[in-house]
Amino acid sequence: MDKKCVIIDDEPLAHEVLEEYIDKLDGFRVVASCSDALEAFSTIKREKPDLLFLDIEMPEMNGLQFLQSLQKPPKVILTTAYREYAVEAFDLDVVDYLLKPIRFERFMRAVDRFYETASVVSPKESTKLIEDGYLAVHADGKIFKIALNEILFVESFGNYVEINLADKKLVTREGISHLEQKLPQELFLRAHRSFLLAINSIVSFNRTSIQLEKRTFPISRKYQDHVLKRLGELG
């Protein structure tokens, strides 16, 4: 189902730019465009949008005042020509703060942040999924429900993590250490700061490396004693 967007801005050109950008996205549609807070208030009640693109400098009531007036606001990306509101804006838990003129690549980064905040699985839900043998992962703007027994290994690349399954790979911004904490220790083994391996996928090992079916992984000194102890216990 498409994410419903409302644009709130008193500048016609700002509406045109945002509508053009949003039109390029799959899964998003503009359901209303408003020029002031009063119009926006009734529109939000009626449309129940998923995301607001909200200007700050508007007549009668500015965007921050309007946002504070909403009891249960949707996700908000602020759009403004003024930098000085940034601290106050993020105190209101906005998704992002875009400075005009808005470049498309910067707009896309804000949308990516929206996906991350809008698709979060609660800790309680995440724990229940793990207990049922699944992991919820945010990738490509979606939540994937992965069976734990399908994961071969996890590899870290800077700010990203690649989860390797038998038939595909998923790239997520979730850190490898965070994934290590979530995944059952009896099923997964950290052998290196960049690698987390499924124990059932291990074909062989020695003191310095672990062999999976199609790839060999190094065992770093930091993890060596723990890895050899764990694998020795399994033997």
Overview of the molecule:
- This protein has 235 residues and is α/β, with parallel strands linked by helices.
- It is built from eight helices and 15 strands.
- The strands form four sheets. Strands 2-1-3-4-5 form a five-stranded parallel β-sheet, sandwiched between helices. A five-stranded antiparallel β-sheet has the order 10-9-8-12-11. It has a three-stranded antiparallel β-sheet with strand order 13-14-15, with no helix packed on it.
- A hairpin with a 2-residue loop joins strand 6 (134-139) and strand 7 (142-147).
- The longest helix has 15 residues, at 104-118.
- It is elongated, with a radius of gyration of 23 Å.
Mean of residue pLDDT values? 89
**Helical percentage:** 25-40%
In order across it, which strands form the biggest sheet? 2-1-3-4-5
Structural class: alpha/beta
N-to-C SSE string, H for helix and E for strand: EHEHEHEHEHHEEEEEHEEEEEH
What portion of the residues fall into strands of 2 or more residues?
A: 25-35%
Estimate the global geometry from the Cα principal axes. Answer: elongated
Q: Report, as a whole number of angstroms, the end-to-end distance.
A: 49 Å
Count of strand segments: 15
Largest sheet: 5 strands, parallel
Which consecutive residue ranges, at least 5 long each, have pLDDT under 50?
Answer: none
Number of helical stretches of at least 4 residues: 8
- Computed Rg: 23 Å
